[in-house]
Specification:
The complex is a heterodimer of chains A (113) and B (114). Chain A has 113 residues and is mainly beta. Chain A contains no helices and eleven strands. Chain B is mostly beta strands and 114 residues long. In chain B, strands 2, 4, 5, 9, 10 and 11 form a six-stranded mixed sheet that branches. Chain B has a five-stranded antiparallel sheet with strand order 1-3-8-7-6, with no helix packed on it. Classes of the chains: A mainly beta (113), B mainly beta (114).
């Protein structure tokens, strides 16, 4: 079974630009979550989509948004990039149940200059 | 406000010995806890979990202990192997959230030496 696939692996953007990251979940998984990892902060929850609906949202500004398509694939968008947005963005999929463990992709490393 | 804390940024253990990784939490609403392992340039991999109705869960060389009164959990790896060298994250979810909204600690880097 193929794992969670994230594209691209690396991105370099300039402050003020916007960026879109893509995530393909494990086949059969209907829940897709996004996390931001920065040094010293661990992983911080951005949002979760389940069956094309945002089911949960973390404490991030509105510049961070996402969506999920009917095939469960998900995209995350960050507008008006700031230097502090430089991070590893991780996507995770699961069956969506209360105790379903998350399966993570290898992440997209975003650098904002 | 760090609700899940891993106070040891790093740990070094000899091959064959026991590795004990610790995690503390402050939110009483957390009722499900997980450990993830992360190698460089890879995403975190699920290791083991425990529900608050239990105080111990075992899976092969990995055992997680939960002390609810102390709001403390630990991961024991016995025996430790060089391939266990990685960053270990403790995570928790609460009764009001879904399994996907996890609160993570900042991680402990485990080095297993020969």
């Amino acid at each position: 079974k193929a794992g969670v696939t994230q594209t691209p692996r690396y991105l370099i953007k300039t402050r003020g630009q916007q960026v879109t990251l893509s995530c393909s979940p494990i086949s059969g998984h209907r829940s897709v979550s996004w996390y931001q990892q920065t040094p010293g902060q661990g992983l911080q929850f951005l949002f979760e989509y389940f069956s094309e609906t945002q089911r949960n949202k973390g404490n991030f500004p509105g510049r961070f948004s996402g969506r999920q398509f009917s095939n469960s694939r998900s995209e995350m968008n960050v507008s008006t990039l700031e230097l502090g947005d430089s991070a590893l963005y991780l996507c995770a999929s699961s069956l969506g149940g209360r105790l379903s463990p998350l399966h993570f992709g290898n992440g997209t490393r975003l650098t904002v200059t | 406000d760090q609700q899940v804390k891993q106070n040891s940024p790093s740990l070094s253990v000899q091959e064959g010995r026991i590795s004990i990784l610790n995690c503390d939490y402050t939110n009483s609403m957390f009722d499900y806890f997980l450990w993830y392992k992360k190698y460089p340039a890879e995403g975190p991999t699920f290791l083991i979990s425990i529900s608050s109705i239990k105080d111990k869960n075992e899976d092969g060389r990995f055992t997680v202990f939960l002390n609810k009164s102390a709001k403390h959990l630990s991961l024991h790896i016995v025996p430790s192997q060089p391939g266990d060298s990685a960053v270990y994250f403790c995570a928790a979810s609460g009764t009001t959230g879904t399994a996907s909204k996890l609160t993570f600690g900042t991680g402990t880097r485990l080095q297993v030496t020969l």
